[in-house]
Amino acid sequence: MQGILTAHHDAINSTPNSANSPYAPDSRIRNNAAPPAWLITMDAAVTTNATTRPAVKPELVCPAGSLRALQMAVDAGADAVYLGLKDATNARNFAGLNFDDTQVRAGVAYAHARGARVLMALNTFADARDTRPWFGAVDTAATMGADALIVADTAVMAYCRDHHPKLRLHLSVQASATSYEAIEFYRRHYGIQRAVLPRVLTLSQVAHLARLSMVDIEVFGFGSLCVMVEGRCALSSYVTGQSPNNAGVCSPPSAVRWQHTPSGVDARLNGVLIDHYGPDEPRGYPTLCKGRFDVAGERGYAIEEPTSLNTLAILPELISIGVKAIKIEGRQRSPSYVEQVTKVWRTAIDSACAAPQRYSVQPAWSATLTRFAEGQQHTLGAYDRPWR
Ligand code: SF4
After folding, report:
1. Residue 376 pLDDT > 50, yes or no?
2. What are the tens digits of pLDDT across the range 323-334?
3. How far is the CA of 231 from the centre of ligand 1 (A)?
4. Rounded to an integer, what distance in angstroms lies between the CA atom of residue 116 and that of residue 240?
5. Would you tell me how many other CB atoms lie within 10 Å of the CB of residue 332?
6. pLDDT at res. 15
7. Which of 78, 225, 288, 319 has a beta carbon 3.0–4.6 Å from 235's, enabling a disulfide?
8. H-run or E-run covering 13
9. How far is the CA of 308 from the centre of ligand 1 (A)?
10. d(CA 194, CA 293)
11. How many CB atoms are closer than 10 A to CB 259?
12. Atom 8, ligand 1: which residue's CA is nearest?
C-alpha cells in the first residue's frame, strides 16, 4: 500500500513519464474493481495519506493558448503547460486561439525537450448527438504524446480508460468536484490521478481534501475568476444559445458586436447591450457575467466585478497542506501575459520551497500581477472568508 502511494505521489523533479514521475502510468490505481479494504473507511484513508505524502514542490501549470505562449511558458519555468484543440472539445474555444494537430505535436516536442509536460484540456461535455469529436480528441492526445488529459465528462473519461489506459486523467475544474466522495468516485471508476478544485473552497476545505484524497490536488493560483459553480454556467446560453459547458465559449465570437457611439463603444452579445465604455476606457472580455447594467437607477457590475484571483500571499500554506499543482488561468491571454506571470510564479514557488520561513510576497511580483489582473485588482477569492 505504502509503495503504491509513494510511487504515485513521488516528487515531480523527474523527466516526463519517467518511472519515478507522478505521470508514470499506474494501472493499480486505474481500475473498476471494488475498493480495497484500505479505502473502505475514511479514517484509514486519512491516516494513510497523512503519513505517506510529504510536502513537495508543487507543479507550476501554465496556460498555452498558442504555440508561442507554450514556448514562452516553458522558457519562463513552467513545469507543465495546458492547451486545447480548435474545437468545442475545449472549454476555451476562442477564435484565433488553440492548437491544430501539427501545433500539438510541435508543442509536445518543445516541452518534452525541456523537461516540461503537456496537459490537453478536453473539458467540455460531449454532444449527445455526436460524441465522435470528443473521443477523436482523446485519440489525438494519445497519438501526439500528451502527458495527461484534463477531463470533465464521464463519457470522455470512460473512453480514455477503455482505449488509452496508460493516458493519465486529471479531473477538470469543470467537473465541479468539491468533496472527498466526489473525487473518489472519479478515481475509482475512471482512474483519475489529479483533481483540479473549483475556486469556491476555503483553505481549510482544500487542506481537508489534500489530506484525504488518494489523488493529487491542483488549485488555481492566479487569473480571472468565474462567478458560476464551475461547469454549470447557463448565462451565455441564455442570450446566445451556446454555453461554456458544451461549446467552450462564454461569448461566441459570432455573437459579439462592438458598436461605436458618440460617447464611446457599446458591447453587445447577440444584440443584448452588456456594457458601454468611454472613449479611452480599457475594454474587458465581453461576458454577460462581467457586464455593467442599470439596476434600480445605479449603473455597475450587477453580477461580478472583473478581478483576478491571486494566491501568492498564501503560497506557503498551499504547499504545506499538500497541494501538488498550482494552475495559472489565461489561455485567452497574450504570450506576454503567460511569460511574465509564469516568471513571477516560478520565482515565488522556488522561494517558498527553499525557505518558507523567509517567504514574503515581493512588491515587484505584485506589480507585475496587478498589471495583468482583470480590472487591475486582486482577490483571495473564496480562500478569504473572514466570517467562516
Ligand atoms: S459567462 Fe461568466 S460566469 Fe459563465 S462561465 Fe463564462 S466567465 Fe463564468
Report:
1. yes
2. 999 999 999 899
3. 9
4. 38
5. 17
6. 43
7. 288
8. none
9. 14
10. 39
11. 11
12. 226
The pTM for the full model equals: 0.85
Provide the β-strand partners of residue 218.
196, 325
Region 270-276: mean pLDDT is 94
> What is 2-225+308-383's CATH superfamily?
Aldolase class I (3.20.20.70)
Tell how far the Cα of 226 is from the centroid of ligand 1, in angstroms: 5
Q: What's the Cα-to-Cα distance from 309 to each of 75, 166, 208, 328, rounded to whole Å?
A: 24, 34, 21, 10
Alpha-carbon Rg for the chain, nearest whole angstrom, is 21
**Helices 132-144 and 154-163: angle between axes, nearest 10 degrees:** 50
What average pLDDT does this structure show over 82-96? 92
Non-local (6+) Cβ contacts of 236 within 8 A are: 242, 243, 244, 249, 250, 251, 252, 269, 287, 288
Structural domain boundaries in the chain? 2-225+308-383, 235-301
Q: Which of 288, 308, 331 to mutate to test the pocket of ligand 1 (most atoms within 8 A of CB)?
A: 288
Q: From CA 383, how far away is CA 122, in angstroms rounded?
A: 27
pLDDT tens per residue across span 32-49: 444 333 333 333 444 344
- Supply the residue whose CA is at minimum distance from atom 7 of ligand 1: 226
**Atom of ligand 1 at shortest distance to CA of 224?**
7
